[in-house]
Each structure stands twice: as C-alpha cells, then as structure tokens.
Design a protein that fits this description.
Layout (H helix, E strand, L loop, with lengths): L1 E6 L2 H11 L6 E6 L2 H6 L1 E2 L7 H10 L2 E6 L2 H5 L2 H6 L9 E2 L3 H8 L1 H10 L7 E4 L4 H10 L4 E5 L8 E4 L2 H12 L11 E4 L5 E9 L4 E3 L4 E2 L2 E3 L3 E4 L4 E4 L6 H21 L6 E10 L2 E8 L7 H4 L7 H10 L13 E9 L22 E4 L2 E4 L2 E4 L3 E9 L2 H12 L7 E2 L9
Helix pairs in contact: 6-7, 8-9
Bound molecules: adenosine monophosphate and glycine.
Adenosine monophosphate binds next to strand 17.
Amino acid sequence: MNILILGSGGREHAFTLKLSESKKINQIFVAPGNAGTAQIATNLAISATDFSAVKEAVLTNNIKMVVVGPEAPLVEGVHDFFLADNELKSIPVIGPKKDGALLEGSKDFSKQFMQKHGVPTAKYQSFTKENLAEGKAFLETLAPPFVLKADGLAAGKGVLILNSLEEAKHELEEMVSNEKFGAASTTVVIEEFLKGIELSVFVLTDGKNYKILPSAKDYKRIGEGDTGLNTGGMGAISPVPFADDAFLNKVEELVVKPTINGLQKDGIDYRGFIFIGLMNDNGNPSVVEYNVRMGDPETEVVLPRIESDLFDLFEGVAHQNLNEKSFNVTNKTATTVMLVSGGYPEAYEKGKEITGIENVKNSIVYHAGTKIENDKILSNGGRVIAVTSLGETINEALLTSYESIKKIGFDKMNYRKDIGFDL
Ligand code: AMP
Ligand code: GLY
C-alpha cells in the first residue's frame, strides 16, 4: 500500500522512518517533507493545507492512507474534506475531523469539554471584548501568577503567564480589544495557575478503543536551566521517571477514559492521536491542554520506543479494531537533543550546509528544518535536526546523543547541553 504523510518536521521524519519498517507499505510520500524524508521516501512539493493539491497527489500516486503530522490541516478540516469527496472518502485519514480538532483549535472548547466530562483541569472562565470588565474583575479573584490563553491557534505563542495583576489586566485588554494574537485572541481563557511538574501522555484512538503510548517530557525553553524564550522544543526524554505506574494509572482512569468516553458521548468520531499535556501535582494529574497530533520533538523519543508495527496500529485506527492490535514498548530510555539555528527562536539564517550526519552511528538523526540542494543538506528552519539515542538509563542515552552531536556541524549551530538536567 502507498501512504502519504503530511508535514515537514522531525515528527514527520520519525513517522516516515517508523512506517518504512512496515512490510505492508509499498511507497511512502511526504508533503512537503525535508531532506531526511527525501532519503527514504518521495517528497511532494505541496503544502499540507493545500487540500486540492493533496487530493491530486493522492489520486496520482494511488495513496490509500493519509497520516497528518501538524495541527493546521486538521483544524482546517482535511479529514472532513476527504469524507466529503467521492473519490477520497474511502481513504482513511489518521487525525481527527474538525469537530475533534477543536480540542486544540479552541481552548474555550477544550475547557468546556473537560468540565463537562469531569476531566481534572484548572478552573477557568472565558472572556471577549464584550465582557472585558468582568474579565478584569475575575482576575482580581485569582492569586498570581495569572494565566491568559488566546482561544485559537497562535503558533504556540498564545499563552501568557504574568505575575502582576495590572499587567494581566493590560494584556487581557490587548488580546481581546486590540487583537494581540489576531482573531485567535478575540476570546481569551483565564485560568488558575497549576503547580507541579509537566509531562505529556500520548493516546492513539480509533474513537472507541485506545492505546496509551509512552509518556515524554520536553524542554521548551531556549536556554539552559529552562531559561529564556519558549521554542517548539529543544529536547525530550521518554519515559518520564516521575510518571510511575500509580500516576499513569490515575491518568488513564481520570483523564484518558473520560476523554474517550466524552468524545463518544458528544458524537465526535475521533480517529488519531491525542496529546495530553499534564501537570503532575504531588501525584495528581491535571490537564494543561490537549493537542490533536503528536508532539515535536516528543515523537522523536516516543516512536523509537514502540516495537510494534505502526502501520498495523494505524490500520486498527482506520478499521476501528485497535483493540485487536498488539502493542509493545521497549523499557529502554530514549532521549533527543535538538540542534537549532543560531538566533532561534528569534531571527536566524537558513541555508547553512550541514556536515557529518553520515558519521553518526549510534544515534538516529531525525531531520526537522532541512532541505537538499545540489546534493548538499542545508538548514531550512529554526529547529534543524533532532539526535535521538536509546539507552538503559537516561544518562547513557544522553551521553550517546551528545557524542553523536560532536560529529555534526553547521554554521551557528546551537543546542542545549543540559537536556534531562532536572531528572
Ligand atoms: P499551552 O499552550 O496550553 O500548552 O500552554 C503553554 C505552557 O504554559 C504550558 O506548557 C505550561 O508550561 C504553561 N501553562 C499553561 N497553562 C498553565 C496553567 N494553568 N498553570 C501553569 N502553567 C500553565
Ligand atoms: N513540543 C510541544 C508540541 O509539539 O506542541
């Protein structure tokens, strides 16, 4: 069977590599892909949100399944587009329809969903410019720090955590009245600040049955010791040592089951990944957010630990018999360290030649922002390469990743030397 993966990051390279191990797959296409996916699959120069171009590619290349990497095509309705088209409707899409994608596309929707279905999460209220005064009054009832979230997608920048009440009131006004995050912030969720340590749990579901994938923790800040600006993620570790069996059981009972049941009760036929961002407060889970896709770089540590055939699991999602599929995970620890362009997450240069990847023997090199030009691999984004290693312990895996990184180079390459420092 031929399969199409939508997206172009490290997550999509990891999907491509894992699916390439499946004997049931003939050819893999990636749209638009990167230099890494080009080496093991066929890249198509198509944007993941250009649905008519995706349709043409699917029909031309006899594609029989589509796996969606990022959230944008899901929130924009790629799955609905397939179901509404006579030539495409029998082709399974791994990823929810628009109704399910709202769990990520609207913070207000996801908070309402959690409240309705009893999923533990921070108390909240939502405001628009029509009730701005009430929003300011609500802030006065909370203790700092204040958490303000733009309702819609804001490229990961829509969450503000502020210590001063005055600043929080000002930012609320900027968001709802002056569209600080454009249309995404015409509605703003204000919620209680949650204490604890963050981690993520990933679920693959066919709408009825589910598999809980390995947990992971990512390192979002650019600077060592978790300082400086937020990034898409500078590294990740799986499993998370502080997520013991007792905690993960609570996550399954208190979060995963009510979420899957809630989707069914609300008539949302959800086929795909649910990324559950959690706070662990003294062993009690609380949901910070849902995403409707896998994380990046979390995928680069979750997939290498899955020993089962990923395509077989996707077929289970498509045919709603995920419960019949075998699912095994290695006990080893996976770590990934992201190599980024100097300056990222602010302004940075692209087009730098990347050397030495072929000398890495003990790690998996996942490409993120890379492209091929005249047989050279060039940087093509802020996050450029994720170097993943497996080990018996976190330290062993990290040592291997950092040894491998010494072999890779590009002008102004930057990375965090302290991934896992807190564990
Ligand atoms: P989100 O986009 O919802 O993941 O928020 C971005 C980050 O803000 C999260 O990963 C948390 O680190 C932090 N955050 C969001 N909501 C809360 C909250 N209620 N309490 C504490 N931290 C939060
Ligand atoms: N690494 C966080 C995310 O993928 O949203």
